[in-house]
């Protein structure tokens, strides 16, 4: 039972959550905008230009991450050792050094790794 009608409406949205799927790689997104941004990664066109060095990127996020190489900005900090990173993905891999987490595990032999790229090499 919900006290306010608005709370009920918000709850009902959880049952009708719409996903948008890429027809090229099957990734899904919670918004049309997210899907449209993702679709740019499949095109050959690189629309976003770095004003510092002229390098081009397919997505705004790609350009924004690249700009940190020029500015030296490192907005992602490790909660364990305070090391700073330019990208969230780099921080996530680093944190696994502290936690010991190995999310990529082979189901056939006893092997696990912290990085997806290493697991892909192992699986070949």
Automatic annotation (TrEMBL):
Predominant location: nucleus
Subcellular location(s) of the protein: Nucleus
A Pfam family per the record: zf-C2H2_4
GO cellular component: nucleus
Transmembrane feature ranges: none
Species the sequence originates in: Maylandia zebra (zebra mbuna)
Sequence similarity: Belongs to the krueppel C2H2-type zinc-finger protein family.
PROSITE patterns attached to this UniProt entry: ZINC_FINGER_C2H2_1, ZINC_FINGER_C2H2_2
Lineage, uppermost ranks: Eukaryota, Metazoa, Chordata, Craniata, Vertebrata
Identification of the protein by name: C2H2-type domain-containing protein
Domain C2H2-type: 20-47, 48-75, 76-103
GO MF annotation, one: zinc ion binding
Alphabetized UniProt keyword annotations: DNA-binding, Metal-binding, Nucleus, Repeat, Transcription, Transcription regulation, Zinc, Zinc-finger
